[in-house]
Amino acid sequence: MDGSVRLEEVVMRFGDFTAIDKMSLEIGSGEFFSFLGPSGCGKTTLLNMIGGFLTPSEGRVSIGGEPMAGVSVNRRPTAMIFQNLALFPLMTVFENIEFGLEVRGVDRRTRRATAERLLALVALEGVGQRRVTELSGGQKQRVAIARALAVEPRVLLLDEPLSALDLKLRQHMRSELKAIQRKTGITFIYITHDQGEALTMSDRVAVMSAGRLQQVADPMTLYRQPATGFVAAFVGENNRIEARVIDRLGERVRLDAGALGELEGRVGDEASLGGGAEVALYVRPEQLRPVAAGTSGDASMGGSTLVAEVESVSFEGAWLMVQARLAGSGEALRVQLGSEVSRSFADALVPGEAITLGYDPAETVVLPRDGSPRVDEATGEVVEAADV
Amino acid sequence: MSSQRLLGWALRGYVVVFFAYLFLPLVVMAAATFNDSRFPTVTPWDGTTLKWFGELAADGAMWQALTNSAIVATGVLLLAVPIGIATALFLNTVSSRAKPFLYALILSPLLTPGVIIGISTLIFWRQWGVGGGIFLTVVGQATFIAAYVMLMVTARLQRFDRTMERAALDLGASQWQMFRRILLPYLRPAILSAAVIAFLQSFENYNTTLFVVGYDTTLTVYIASKVRTGLTPAVNALGLILILVTVLLAAAYELKRRREAARVAGV
Predict the structure, then answer these.
(1) pTM here?
(2) CA-CA distance, B221 to B215, in Å (whole number)?
């Protein structure tokens, strides 16, 4: 049972609008693969093309090595979990799960046995005779999964299936989904705009923006070595500091950050960034550490320091989130301080107070500036990559 | 405070007058059934009698007309309901630009006077050698009753969540299986109501029927003809029976509906 999915130069146009722009990608059999991106980035369109609900304008989609052109929805080896679940409200739980088998002409006994087995898999025994309208949100979720698994798909397509659940249940269902995927060995293709979901469950994540792939990588690489400014800003939190390259030694670059002085950073696999290049340095809030004022920072940290004025501090339990402004440029800086800061230090962090911060350049990433994202000014959310 | 009270009384008074307006004629008609008078009237009261029920039962032509009405109404139901469903499904799929035009076209028989529908049906079928009768009555009535069915089915269809359809296809169902197992059960309540409405609309129709009925008189046509030849309280007896049957059916339906609502709410 080969559940690999291959996209070759797939294009999807709706009138003048290009929803998917020449996308090529290979998803391995048995992989938990996520498409992550803001709404409108084309991820749902992509899922619909794999499921057979949309025919690509150009390019090829194949599943398990077989080209899917001309193969209709009801003949594809895929099953979809819809955002609103789309359970059949007039049917019982059993009837819902058995539907796919019933239309294939499977006899009643086998059907019921399969349904019982799947209900056990999703930890929902004993509700078979109930109407789906009588179930809770989490139970409906499980029935939808069981119904899709009943047809033994090679690829399961999940269209933001957890978005309707409350936070706690959502987090619980993450591990549940991951467990089901491991048990069944089916390829899961999951689309979401929630990076938490994508990072916690996936083997690999494709970050999408405006119909294009920004980066395809495992979650940790995505977080630590974002390939574009869009990924750096969209996945996790990041502070962005504009600068110019002074010189470069291997991965290390020295940067001229104007009023902020000289800073150091790490270049990813971007070979083109030489002296004089316009860049952006990305430093995550949790990578910033307080250092004694006036020093040039810890020697092990490479000597880069930032001075900022505290604006507000919020206590989040395990950490402190400090909202500050950089002295010199006046740009916002977010700092996450963990248990390493003492109580007295934390108490001294009052608005208006200056704080000096150091970071390890090896943990940062320096990217060309033109790939930086566009941010929605009203919501502060990343909307799309600026280069499109 | 007192003005509010006044308004309350005025409203109550209005309701009384309103229902009197609706039902007093029916009450008078029903009462006339028991009057031992040759004419359907309550004044003067010539004594109480049940003889008009007997006379009604003995009226063979009336029974024939009633049977014809039932046959026609069943025929209309069987013809108009499938046509109405199919039209609703079709209208649901056509592009937005053609839709208003097609919609108007299908609804036009509802806006056309029944007389015109009757005459045109007769003239059209005459060309093909088909004269007035039960067949033509069914065909003529179905032209506009199908539009009612279409309206009722469309109203429910518009609330259908299309992802159900996608989900069914995704699980391997053919279009027909999707229709049979998902869409049709969903539309069932609307189709049942439409069938009842179609039957009643046919049963009570007079103006279209008059032109296409030929010699197979239906009940409405028969009653109208009696007005000319001389109306007796036997017609009132028939009216009373029809009212009672209608009320009983409506009450039974309401009871069933309430029981079902209670069952759904109870679990």
Answers:
(1) 0.80
(2) 10
Contact between A303 and A297 (Cβ < 8 Å): yes
What are the boundaries of each domain within chain A?
5-224, 237-387
- Provide CB contacts within 8 A for A338, sequence distance 6+: A286, A318, A319
CA dihedral B129, B135, B139, B141 (to 10 degrees): 130
Asked whether A60 and A12 are in contact (CB, 8 A), the reply is: no
Residue range A47-61, pLDDT digits in tens? 999 999 999 999 999
> Min CA distance, A186 vs chain B (Å)?
16
Q: What number is the average pLDDT over the span B144-150?
A: 94
How many CB atoms are closer than 10 A to CB B196? 13
Q: Are A50 and A64 in contact (CB under 8 A)?
A: no
SS3 of B195, please?
A: helix
Alpha helices in A161-313 (DSSP H): 167-184, 195-201, 219-224, 229-234
Per-residue pLDDT tens digits for B212-262: 988 888 998 988 888 787 778 888 888 899 889 889 988 998 898 888 777
Closest CA to A155 of A188, A184, A190, A204: A188
Helix and strand element counts for chain B (H, E)? 12, 0
State pLDDT tens for residues A269-281. 666 677 778 889 9
Q: Say which residue, B36 or A381, is predicted with more confidence.
A: B36
Q: What CATH number has the domain spanning A5-224? A: 3.40.50.300
Residue in A88, A67, A10 with CA at minimum distance from that of residue A42: A10
**Nearest CA to CA, how far is A27 from chain B (Å)?**
21
Element (H, E) at A208: strand A204-209
Q: Omega of the bond prior to A285 within 30 degrees of 0, cis?
A: no
Q: Show which of residues 176-235 on chain B sit within 8 Å of chain A, judged by CB atoms.
A: 177, 181-182, 185-186
CB atoms A73 and B166 under 8 Å:
yes
Across the interface, do A79 and B168 touch by the CB < 8 Å criterion?
no
CA distance A272 to A291: 33
Residue among B131, B139, B122 at smallest CA distance from B202: B139
Question: Is A237-387 in CATH node 3.40.50.300?
Answer: no
**Chain B partners within 8 Å of A102 (Cβ):** 181
pLDDT of residue B97: 84
Chain B hits for A75, CB-CB cut-off 8 Å, are 172
Residue A84 near chain B (CB below 8 Å): yes
Nearest by CB to B170, from A80, A88, A102: name it.
Answer: A80
Q: Crossing angle, helix A93-102 and helix A108-121, to 10 degrees?
A: 120
Say whether A72 sits in a helix, a strand or coil: coil
Contact A248, A275 (CB under 8 A): yes
Place of tokens 């032509």: B61
